[in-house]
Amino acid sequence: MSLTDILSPSDIAAALRDCQAPDSFSPKKFFQISGMSKKSSSQLKEIFRILDNDQSGFIEEDELKYFLQRFECGARVLTASETKTFLATADHDGDGKIGAEEFQEMVQS
Length: 109
What we know:
By secondary structure, the protein is mostly helical. It is built from six helices and two strands, in the order αααβααβα.
């Protein structure tokens, strides 16, 4: 399964266009524009599984840096400050990585 099986390609493209400039990425805005915030819990779990590149059950900081590229190969890499802010937004237990439940809470909040 791919992200375009769950999210509309045009919504993904619009979300990526919105954060093309360095330091313009807002997770909440990206989730809204891409349509992720409207998805069911099971769909968000599938999206999480796709984004968890190494299938560790967590999205770590090094995976977050390439978050936008998981949606489109040519997308930019998140800046260090965007990556740290993104991680801090979701990492409720302070373990330095985002679990499936933390991801779902962040997307749906």
